[in-house]
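Support request, priority: normal
Reporter: lab tech (M.K.)
Component: structure prediction queue

Hi team, I submitted a job for Na(+)/H(+) antiporter NhaA from Auraticoccus monumenti yesterday, and the status page still shows it as pending. I've pasted the exact input below so you can check whether something in the sequence is tripping the parser. The sequence length should be 438 residues. Please let me know if I need to resubmit or if it's stuck on your end.
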Amino acid sequence: MRSTPAQRRPLFPRGSWREVSRIGTVLQRETVGGSLLLAATVVALVWANSPWSSAYSDLRDLTVGPDALHLHLSLGTWAADGLLAIFFFVAGLELKRQFVAGDLRDPRRAAVPVVAAVGGMAVPALLFTLVNLRAGGDALQGWAIPTATDIAFALAVLAVVSTHLPAGLRTFLLTLAVVDDLLAITIIAIFYTRELHPLLLLLALVPLALFGLLVQKRVRSWWLLIPLAVLTWSLVHASGVHATVAGVLLAFTVPVLRSQAAGGPEAGPGMAEHLEHKVRPLSAGFAVPVFAFFAAGVTVGGFSGLADALSDTVALGIVVGLVAGKTIGVLGATFLMSRFTRATLDEGLRWVDVLGLAVLAGIGFTVSLLIGDLAYGAGSERDEHVKVGVLVGSLTAALVAAVILRLRNRTYRRLCAEEEHDTDSDGVPDVYETDAHR
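Reply from support: The job had stalled in the queue. We restarted it manually and it finished. Here are the results:
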C-alpha cells in the first residue's frame, strides 16, 4: 500500500485574525511615518542644494547639551544617537511581541523571515566587499551600510503601490525589516564601537535593571520610567557603545504577556503593547523624520556631482548591495527554505510576489545612513558619497519593487476578497476560523 506524502505546510501562512488585525494597524502607523520621512528627506535635499545650504549645515552642526557624560552634541548627532534610540526601542518591542505572543512564537513560522533577514544582510555585505576589495584605504569600513531595510519607507511604498498584499506576506515583510534592523544594531555595537569604557557600561546596567524591575511589575508611571531610560541611554552613550543599543536593551526588559494576577486577557493590553502604543507615534511621527532631515541633506551638485559621487566604489557598492544584494539574499534564502523544508507557497501566490518583497527590502535608508556616519565620519567627503549611494539605491529599489508589485496588485485584490468574503457576527472572516481548526 502506497503511503501518502506528508502535507506540505504553507511558506507564508495567513496567521490568526487577531494578529492580522494588529499587523494591519502597525502598518498603517508606519505608512504615515513613511510619508513624513519622505517629506523630511525631500526638504533636506532641497535645502542642502539651495543657495541657503550653509544655513542647513549650520543648523545640523549646532551643538547643544551639557558637557557631562559627553552630551554636548550637534543636533545631527542628537538625532542619530538620541532619536533613533526611540526607533530601536519600538523595533525591539515589536520583535519581542511577535516572538513571545504573536504568530511567530511558532518556530516554523519564525524561521522563514529570520533566515530571509540573515540572507538579506549577508549577500549585500558580500557584494559591497567585492566591489571595494581593491579600493584601498577605509573603503571596506562601510561593508554593513547596505544590510538594513527601512521599515517606514518600505511600508509606505507598499501602501501606495499594493493595497491588497496578503496578510502572510505583509507579516513577512514587517518581521524581516524588524529582524534585520535588530541585527544591524548588533553589528553597530560590535564593529563600530571605537572606544569602550567598561565601567560606564557596567553602570548603565543599574538604571536598566531598575527599569526592567518596574516594567516587570507593570508600573506605568512615566515620571519613573523616563528618567531611568534617559540615564541608561546617557551611560551607554558615554561608554562608547552606540547609544541606540540602549533602546533595544530597554525594550527587551518589557514583559509581553499580561499579568495573570491582574485578570489575564481581560485586564487590558500587556506592558509591551501599552508602551508600543504610546511610543510608536513618537518614533514614526517625529524621531525618524527628524533624523532623516539631518542625515539626508547632501549637496549633490547636479548631474556631474551625482556622477562623481557614484564613481566612488563605496557609493557603487551601496547601490549594488541594496538593489542586487537584498534581492538575491532575501529571495535566495526564502527559496532555500522552501527547497529544503516541506514549506510551499500558498495557493494563489507566486514567486514573483516574493521577488517584489525582496526588491522592496532594498530600501535601506535610516539605518544605512546611520552606519555610514559611523563608518566614515559625519560630514566627510566619503560620507557624502554614502548618502548619494543610499538615496540612489533606495530609490531604485523602490521603483523596481513598485513596478513588480503594481502588476500583481489585481491578484492581491482578488485574494483579499476571497479571504474576507464571508464574515460572521463576531467580525472575524470565516477563513481565519477555518484555519484555526485545521
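The CA atoms of residues 360 and 399 lie 9 Å apart. The beta strands are 9-10, 63-64, 73-74, 343-344. Let us know if anything else looks off. Ticket resolved.
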